[in-house]
Amino acid sequence: MMEEEGVIKKFLYLNRKAPYGTVYALESLEVILVGAAFEQDVSLAFIDDGIYQLKKNQQTSVSSGIGVKDFSKTYRALEGYDVEKVYVDKKSMEERGLTEDDLLVDIEVLDEAQMAELMEQQDVVLSF
Amino acid sequence: MLLHTVNKSPFEKNSLESCLRIANQGHSILLFEDGVYAALKGTRFETLLTEAIKSYNIYVLVPDLEARGMRMDNVIEGIKPTDYAGFVDLAVENKTVPAWL
Amino acid sequence: MKFAILVNEGPYQHQASDSAYQFTKAAIEKGHDIFRVFFYHDGVNNASRLTVPPQDDRHIVNRWSELAKEHNLDLVVCIAAAQRRGMLDEKEANRQGKDANNIAEGFRISGLGQLIEAGIQSERLVVFGD
Lengths: 128, 101, 130
Description:
By secondary structure, chain A is of the alpha/beta class. Chain A has a single domain (10-127), classed as Hypothetical Protein Ychn, Chain: A. Helices cover 26% and strands 19% of the residues of chain A. Chain A has helices at residues 24-36, 73-77, 90-95, 112-120, and strands at residues 10-15, 41-46, 85-89, 108-110, 124-127. A five-stranded parallel sheet of chain A has the order 4-3-2-1-5. In chain A, helix 1 links the parallel strand 1 and strand 2. Chain B is α/β, with parallel strands linked by helices. Chain B has four helices and five strands. In chain B, strands 4-3-2-1-5 form a five-stranded parallel sheet, sandwiched between helices. Chain C has one domain: DsrEFH-like (Hypothetical Protein Ychn, Chain: A, 3-Layer(aba) Sandwich), CATH 3.40.1260. Chain C is built from five helices and five strands. The chains are: A alpha/beta, B alpha/beta, C alpha/beta. Chains in contact: A-B, A-C, B-C. Chains A and C meet through helix 1 and strand 5 of A and helix 5 of C.
């Protein structure tokens, strides 16, 4: 089931939405985790409010705060799934007053030209 | 070359703006669903689109335009009309189809 | 060309399912191959057997079922998203101890792996969402 004749494609997950206000952040993460088993060449791009998905110190639980499970730790587990190419759009980060120190995982900051280049290299782009 | 799709109104979301900020020159952009509002003359986005036409192949999905009460003569010069069959052709002609939701 | 279609939104609430349907139909008419249509997030609700929309407007669920039947399409509903939203086929309903099931004809429930596989096996993946 997972050996598709050894085809390896470049998959880009395009995340532009904030966490918690909608389900997209959580459910896109679930795709990334399941997708990891297929050993494709995966990159994650966080643009616009998508950057907030990576914000440190998210505090919530099923029994406190907004009463919703905190799934932010899962981003830290991605490395263990061989998902290491995590990119953040420079302008989106700056216009939100954020720096790399505010984010939960190691990321690479890309400017527009670099992000454009990244997109062009992909075989499949998944948006949520 | 990529086909970028934008389906939300520029007044509602920044999807089109982000797309235009990041997409490489020479790419194609399809405005469909509520995204067609960006194609209209006389809005505060007209300059943005008029400039964008110089760098991108911009298309508007005519059925979505007409559903919303507009016609091609309401559309900025240089934005090309297309339909679902044309959308399919554009998808075939381009390497990937990033969706700016 | 081989297409994979991803539908991220439910019927009527957003235009995504309509647009996906029109695109899929156009692609078929042009002789292309639809590898799979995958329904995720609220898109799983496109598989509800229980919708009763007004008679003078399109029946989104039936339209998908009919297109699938006519062209032998693989319409897949993500199991994780489906469980969250109460979309269960007979097997899942029995497995989960629920007293009803609600998946329409032509749709099948399966894992997220089917989406990744569709991306790998197709030449173009087109996303319809919000």
